């Protein structure tokens, strides 16, 4: 039976279907206007084409799909893994997508797979709404939708719980209960790629502030389609440069995900899409008791392999172009980049080859993923720093556009490198600027360092999670042994 909450009535099988699916009356707001069609608007269109290409890949490459128990060919990242082999297949499908953007897209359709699968498998956690969760999972999976997730409450005043704010309507909460569902109102701070999504999974994360019984209205988890009446998606400024050629900023042009602020202006949610309702414990504990958030982090870890590989390759190319590849300092930096890349691969292997039981099936090794989560801000910063040091200041002194070289070819020889001509070197350094220094790069760094939790919280969580490891006993055992040895020698 088709639920009345279903907005998309047939699977999205290829890029054309995807582009068509976005013309659904959604309200995306950009520079004071409601965007008529995101697939045509210059701030959004290139990314819709990139996602369309991902959908085309799904239709072209059978290795990206699997047969579900409901008889659909679904995208592998949505599979509920039952063992290590499944985890391997899922990871390979995700890597295939990451290769399309050198790992520059943080939250593409593949990224959402394990997140929604993690939700779908965790039925018992969501009792009495287990069936709702399962139906949503199957709907997104079988129709090959591209969902978003919004959990972070607006910062406003982190020292207060939502109900303590001067206006109780600021943070998203349930404002009305009806026979057929609930009405939600308020804001979520950020959802990456929201203008390109089909469904929005709404959860709750308010930093260190846990909800109490007084905040029951805020204890909501559910899902709404992007074209739900009342849902307003405010995209941040797009990074696509308005002038020049796409090769002046290829990554900003193609891969800007338009993080967005979401305002739910009395949005109706039918009961079928309510997963947690007026249950503060459940609204907060999903972070630790389901693998939804863990899978977000794991998706990043998988992607970082590709991204770091690209940074290393870029650094080698630049060092060759500048004639510095033979210098010892550069070689040390390149060696360190290789080490970081290899470490990502090793962590992925460690997570994948030590699966642990999950509600239904298995999940990747949590401690490995949480270790990555805790160290990622430091690692990412270091990798960027290394590539910047290798590339030097060339990126800051580029001509404004490759068009300048076309118009004034006499300058081409003056901007050449040791091994490449002036046009090729300018193209290369345009990439350096784009992925290391531009607005796009700066946002990319912010998301890679911070988007899975504030740096302090994640370290503290790791420490508290490790309490059961028996640090005191460990110290005492070692010291008893040392004392005994001292007496004996
Ligand atoms: C580019 C980008 C994309 C993102 N995409 C998404 C998305 O798609 N969906 C989504 O839901 N979220 C998304 N996020 C949000 C992300 O999950 C949060 O940024 C992250 O969880 C950290 O929370 P915060 O930014 O609210 O920081 P805060 O929690 O406000 O922390 C900011 C600083 O204040 C300190 N602080 C805050 N509260 C306390 C306290 N109680 N005690 C002591 N110190 C405190 C912290 O230590 C930290 O240094 C995205 C973020 C970024 C940057």
From TrEMBL:
Signal peptide (from-to): none
Domain (HpaB/PvcC/4-BUDH N-terminal): residue spans on this chain: 15-276
Gene3D superfamilies: 4-hydroxybutyryl-coa dehydratase, domain 1 (1.10.3140.10), Butyryl-CoA Dehydrogenase, subunit A, domain 2 (2.40.110.10), Butyryl-CoA Dehydrogenase, subunit A, domain 3 (1.20.140.10)
Protein name: 4-hydroxyphenylacetate 3-monooxygenase
Domain HpaB/PvcC/4-BUDH C-terminal positions: 285-467
Record keywords: FAD, Flavoprotein, Monooxygenase, Oxidoreductase
Molecular function GO terms recorded: monooxygenase activity; oxidoreductase activity, acting on the CH-CH group of donors
Residues binding FAD, per UniProt: 155-158, 192
InterPro entries, A to Z: Acyl-CoA_Oxase/DH_mid-dom_sf, AcylCo_DH-like_C, AcylCoA_DH/oxidase_NM_dom_sf, HpaB/PvcC/4-BUDH, HpaB/PvcC/4-BUDH_C, HpaB/PvcC/4-BUDH_N
Domain of life: Bacteria
Pfam families hit by this protein: HpaB (PF03241), HpaB_N (PF11794)
